[in-house]
User: Fold these one by one.
Assistant:
Number 1:
Amino acid sequence: MATHTSDLLATAAPRTVAVVRGIADDQLDLPTPCAEYTVRDLLNHLFEVVVNFQGLAAKRPTTWADKPDHLGDGWRDRFETETRRLIDAWSDPASMEGVSPGMGLPQETVGGMALLDLTVHGWDLAVATGQPYEPAPEAVDALRELVEQLGPLPRKMGVFAEVVPTSPGLPDVHRLLAATGRDPAWTGAAR
């Protein structure tokens, strides 16, 4: 079976997996658009998202306190495997029902948050490591709606930085990035 969320994850995931596979070991200490994260830090965070949101799909409590280093042997293959598991977890229609016991948000919103991290952090990692990245247009459309729905809450919680002003006529993905506090024109040199 599948859900709308799992379909969006399945469309978005290969693009981020390709970026992760393209990261060289000598790029792990580079800065990212997430000011407090190097590439290594952001990869570890994204691993945590992919693993923890599998549990959230099943409405199991998760902990974000553990900060293991996921970048041991075979980490690129493991990331792809865990991403497939994430898609599978959200393909169960029961994953979309009710409210997340751990987050207190509708399960549909929680699934959208997994998509948001996978998509936006895919861009973060791509731009930090000089790779091309074109997020799935369907994901960008859904995520713009999600970010609007979440309103100021992610900024209050420190998840997003302040909105970056943009000029009219920018592509949808740039407006999404700006809404999450990212400068669509970010380069490593700008840090």
Note: The CA atoms of residues 105 and 150 lie 10 Å apart.
Number 2:
Amino acid sequence: MSYYQYHVFFCTNKREDGGRCCQDFNASGMRDYAKKRCKKLGIHEPGNVRINNAGCLNRCEEGPVIVVYPGEIWYTYVDREDIDEIIDSHLVNGKVVERLKI
């Protein structure tokens, strides 16, 4: 059994050369928001959900990127409403958000 039911990685990479990167889309702020919301919901704990930073996930052309394990479900997002949908649908109810999958 995995230590977490869902382990979520937010790419928070900032490219030094000025190339497109997730940090151009406030990735660190969105990660902080997701972690805070999961804590508020009481799901950010061992056996349930863990939100982490990741370095470059090498999918910069997709926009800001999140990957959820297990299942290796890759998402993109635009705003907090998208993050809320991923949390509510996938992390709370186990249902993949098809419209945000990449």
Note: The two ends are 27 Å apart (CA to CA).
Number 3:
Amino acid sequence: MLRPILDEIFSVLSNGEHYKVHTLAAHLQAVELLKQLDEDPNQDLFKRNFVLMNSLYSLQSELIEDGIYLHVDSMDIYLADKGQAPELNTPLRSYYLDWQNYHTDNKEIEALLDSFWQRFSYQQYSTNQPLDKATVDNLCQQWQITQPLEEKAIRRRWRQLALKYHPDKGSDDDLMFKQLQDEYQQLLSHIKVF
């Protein structure tokens, strides 16, 4: 079932460039190899990501036998010489190669997405600067949330905006998504300071 996906991924990566998961996912969707997998948006996003990551790790296993290392990281995917290969048996690799994880309930998917985006946002866009009142007011208006700010309301709105603007959902505005991530972290940091 996955052979056409593996072949297409290898073909794309053979140009020597580095790719991101959402870039590869968009390409596979464009060539109709990664179609909608579920009616529920969270389930669909999770399942598409699962199939793509499973394909990448499966291809990684095949290529290492031929002396080619496939580096798999959500933000950096590329082919390299086998000499650059680190330990391949990682928990993430094991997770995506186990098809039992494909059927995951919405609560677990929500927790996984929250955890991923919190780690990603914290690493990329964390801020220790408290926001001034004008900035907070402006963000509340843009995000359509009310004051006083509550963590639960910020997280709920973040999920809505992330689903709408996530690059895997067809949004080609990566800058908008990164801006939303930054604002999300700013709002969370702001309520923790005050």
Note: Confidence is low (pLDDT under 50) at residues 122-128.
Number 4:
Amino acid sequence: MKEVVGNLWDYLGRVPVCITTGGMVTPRGDCAMPRGCARQARDRFPELSGQLGRLIREKGNHVHDLDNGLVSFPVENSPFDVPGLGLIERSCAELLALVEERGWPQVLVPRPGCGGGGLQWHEVRPILQKYFDDRFLVIRAKE
């Protein structure tokens, strides 16, 4: 995996961009996307929360290839939960399988669970390293 610094949205349209998500679906059927890059994606693409909500209801809280060059990367089951290292590891394995299936030469992933989720990068990094090769760009925001 390669670590980069920058703005996640600068990569949109160039490579598939993962957004860290949760599995909570509102009574209206939308995926709750209250903070972080999930909220930014929801604000950019208003139909996204409905699309992801449908996928979660039909297929579960998993990695999903979404519209607009986005990929969901579950880190928590609810915005009220702390991101789980086990769920992050499952998402890594699912993303690797999707990258293989689609033949993507690169994909961008934010540091999962390390922003609003409160996890520390030193906890999460070893999990990603087990699954991600040089096709995976892991981005952190400029400070």
Note: The first helix runs from residue 36 to 44.
